[in-house]
Amino acid sequence: MHSERDEIVSREREFHNLRFSQEEDPRGSLDKWYRTIRHGAERQDEQIKRLSKNADVLEYGCSDGGWSLHSLHLPDLCRSLTGIDISDVAVNKANERASTLGSTNATFLAMNAEAMSFEDNKFDLVYGRGIIHHLDLDRCFSDVVRVLKPNGVASFYEPMGHNPLLNAYR
What we know:
single chain, alpha/beta, Rossmann fold, five-stranded parallel sheet
């Protein structure tokens, strides 16, 4: 018997697999809304680049790898880059991008962010943007803390998580 949480995770996976199976991102029409959060996003980008130098990094909700590979160029900065996403379609695209770029220190995995299979104390930095509102906070944060090394840092930017329209849609 599946729990309510399992059903939510399954719906999220189906939604994002469909999204990443399309030629164009159906959320493209939302660009005007994303522009309103640009300043905060740019500040987080700077922080991530700074904290990634020679670090073992986990991108939490990696999507198709575009942010870490093309926008931030993290494989050039960090010791290792691991990305996780609920969508195996997105992860396949991310691994293809990493391969095309020759990023041998970047790996992307399909994984539930609330129940990561990584060993304890693995990452110096865990970061994500627009992911936390999809998750059970108690479960995800306890797992983030578990995989962070002592003195590791977690950085999340969640500008739309409490948007009532977004939550009604979900």
